[in-house]
Design brief:
Blueprint (H helix, E strand, L loop, with lengths): L1 H8 L7 H4 L3 H12 L5 E4 L15 H5 L5 E4 L21 H12 L9 H11 L6 H16 L4 H4 L6 H12 L6 H5 L10 E2 H10 L10 H7 L3 E7 L4 E7 L1 H14 L2 E5 L12 E6 L16 E6 L9 H5 L6 E3 L20 E3 L20 E3 L20 E3 L19 E6 L7 H7 L5 E7 L5 H8 L7 E6 L18 E5 L8 H5 L5 E5 L7 H4 L8 E5 L6 E5 L8 E5 L6 E5 L8 E5 L19 E5 L2 H9 L8 E5 L1
Parallel strand pairs: 1-2, 6-7, 7-8, 8-9, 9-10, 10-11, 11-12, 12-13, 13-14, 14-15, 15-16, 16-17, 17-18, 18-20, 19-21, 20-22, 22-23, 23-24
Antiparallel strand pairs: 3-5, 4-5
Helix pairs in contact: 1-3, 5-7, 9-13
């Protein structure tokens, strides 16, 4: 690569073959010598992952340190280097830009004007391209050929053929590491355009027998290969909280899964793609009555329901008994109202996803699911949970919220439990020594319904015994104040979220903790400036404040927050002024300000934050216009102000 750069920038007399015999250091010195005193703009396109940016280390003084020259690297792989000033992630084209590219490709010169109805039809067709330029250009060329054959415009936009684009995307799959290919294939189990939670991805992968305990985070590895887009990052930087896969790559995952892992898709409208020996099945249901698919179920490992189908109340007992080796049953967002007792016969089940349905009661027979590792019943309003959880000895992750328990759940019997969100403070066990001996794996805990009558002293005393606990969320009960939390135990915690009105102020223990790296304050409605209260959290990396403060002024001293990289301020309805000191010490890389309707100006010290790369703001139209016209944000590379 250095040789090619030299050939373009340096005039060499005679044969260039001698360059091939020089080492990197000599090539770098030669290039640096010829570049001195002259600014250059160097573009390296299609950089491969095995080529390190370090090969340009000899050009650092001239190219990478701001002495006039600039280096632009383009790659579909994530490039990580301390030399890089900024990484810009390319996004899919929006509707208007997709339309412009389509029309420019379809008509090279004179562009006719379509009627509104015809334009709407064409734009609707283009949605299937997902804003991918490659697909948009391919479709435009198809339509140009079809038009030349005499097809009318109205018929031209009725259908779309993306097979050529999928073939062009196949190399992305073939060039994946062999260990990553199975994870990509399992993306076929999710909905198109779905925003996926990393924890669910990991649970599905693990239940399928894939290793999720590798040194490198799998979801982030897929991001590095441009397979998924990070919607919501999670600290540390190499983690992903929520992500999404492009619709065309999702289509590719379905295509490859059908070829390589026995995947089939069945639809209630009869437009099916059955497999000879299915092991993974996705059922798309419309608004019609659920149609039971009874064929070839003996070897099925995964059964996923998508769509807005009617309830499964009328499924026969024999339907569920036909799945002998089923490990994954996912009915998230499906509209389930009642769970048949016969689902308890799924003795090999490891993952049961029932999030966001209308379930009123968990059957008592579910205690027989001895192999179950993940039970997700969150976002089912007031679902009754019998005291059967203690019988699920293999349970690792239990997700629920606003549940009704006639008897306290014996969660302390679950010695493998790693995640428990959320359990009422009144259902939590306080047998301190039992917790210390049994719940040795619990890493993430959410406690809810903390009102003025709750005995938080006993709660915090029990938390001291959880030696593996790293993340804790405390939720208040509706609009009632939480009691004084000064005795909050935080010694081992890295992540804390407080969601609810605080009767006094932030807990003393929280303010003094040196371990906390992520803090989220929601609806705390503090009267004191939270930034002043948190000045001892030197290692804090991420801070989110949502309706957390009712004051008018906020002071941020970056001398105290030298490790803060992400700050989100939202719904501070009274905030009018933000002051910043020691901004040159700031390592803040991303700042978000949302729905603070009286914050009309930003602190001028922002210009001295040399690490700040991204700024986003949602505000009124008047304030948005005012902020855009100022020069404060001129040095920030990525700025997004709405409306």
């Amino acid at each position: 690569m250095l040789v090619e750069v030299i050939k373009q920038l340096v005039k060499i007399d005679g044969d260039n073959s001698s360059l091939e015999e020089m080492d990197n250091r000599s090539l770098g010195q030669m290039l640096r010598h010829h570049m001195r005193g002259m600014p250059y703009f160097i573009v390296i396109d299609n950089l491969l992952p095995q080529i390190s940016v370090g090969c340009f280390e000899h050009l650092e003084d001239e190219v990478l340190s701001g002495h006039g020259s600039r280096l632009l690297l383009i790659s579909r792989y994530e490039i990580v280097s301390k030399h890089l000033y900024y990484t810009h992630e390319m996004k899919a084209l929006d509707s208007d830009k997709s339309w412009q590219l389509f029309m420019k490709t379809l008509f090279r010169n004179d562009v006719p004007k379509f009627s509104k109805d015809l334009e709407w039809k064409a734009r609707d067709m283009l949605k299937k391209c997902g804003g991918l330029p490659l697909a948009t250009i391919d479709v435009a060329r198809q339509k140009a050929k079809q038009r030349l054959s005499g097809i009318e415009w109205e018929q031209l936009f009725d259908s779309i053929d993306l097979s050529g684009t999928l073939k062009s995307l196949e190399p992305m799959y073939h060039k994946l590491d062999e260990k990553l290919k199975p994870y990509f294939l399992h993306m076929s189990l999710f909905k198109e355009n779905a925003i996926m939670r990393e924890e669910k991805l990991e649970h599905i992968w693990a239940a399928s027998g894939l290793n999720t305990r590798s040194e490198e985070d799998i979801a982030h590895s897929l991001f590095r290969h441009s397979i998924v887009e990070i919607v919501h990052p999670h600290p540390p930087p190499s983690r992903v909280k929520r992500c999404r896969i492009h619709p065309l790559l999702h289509m590719l995952s379905i295509q490859k899964a059908e070829d390589e892992m026995g995947f089939e898709m069945l639809r209630s409208n009869g437009n099916n793609r059955p497999s000879q020996s299915p092991r993974h099945r996705v059922i798309h249901c419309g608004r019609d009555k659920f149609n039971q698919f009874m064929t070839r179920d003996k070897h099925l490992v995964s059964l996923i329901f998508h769509g807005g189908g009617r309830y499964l109340d009328d499924t026969s007992q024999s339907y569920w008994k036909s799945f002998e080796v089923l490990k994954i049953l996912d009915m998230d967002d499906f509209g389930v109202k009642k769970l048949p007792e016969s689902t308890s016969t799924l003795s090999e089940l490891k993952y049961l996803g029932l999030r966001n349905n209308y379930i009123q009661k968990i059957p008592d027979s579910f205690g027989g699911l001895k192999e179950l590792e993940v039970l997700d019943i969150a976002l089912n309003f007031m679902v009754e949970v019998p005291d059967i959880v203690n019988e699920m000895g293999s349970l690792h992750h239990l997700h629920m919220s606003n549940v009704i328990c006639r008897k306290p759940l014996q969660v302390d019997a679950l010695k493998h439990l790693e995640t428990l969100t959320y359990i009422s403070i009144y259902d939590w066990t306080y047998e301190v020594f039992s917790l210390e001996e049994k719940m040795i794996c619990l890493q993430k805990l959410g406690i809810e319904e903390i009102d003025g009558n709750a005995d938080v002293s006993k709660l915090f005393a029990s938390l001291c015994r959880l030696k593996s606990l790293e993340g804790l969320t405390l939720r208040g009960f509706r609009f009632m104040s939480m009691p004084c939390l000064d005795e909050l135990y935080v010694n081992r915690l890295h992540r804390v979220k407080l969601d609810g009105l605080l009767a006094t102020t932030l807990p003393r223990a929280l303010r003094d903790s040196l371990r906390i790296k992520e803090l989220n304050l929601v609806n705390t409605c503090l009267e004191e400036d939270p930034m002043w209260l948190l000045t001892k959290l030197f290692y804090l990396c991420r801070l989110k404040l949502q309706n957390a403060y009712i004051g008018r002024e906020m002071l941020i001293e970056f001398r105290q927050f030298q490790n803060l990289k992400f700050l989100r301020i939202s719904e501070l309805w009274n905030l009018r002024s933000v002051y910043v000191t020691h901004s040159h010490l700031s390592k803040l890389s991303q700042l978000e300000i949302n729905n603070c309707p009286h914050l009309e100006t930003l602190p001028e010290e922002i210009v001295w934050m040399e690490h700040l790369r991204k700024f986003a703001m949602v505000t009124t139209k008047h304030i948005a216009t005012k902020i855009r016209s100022s020069s404060i944000l001129s040095k920030i590379v990525e700025v997004d102000i709405s409306p």
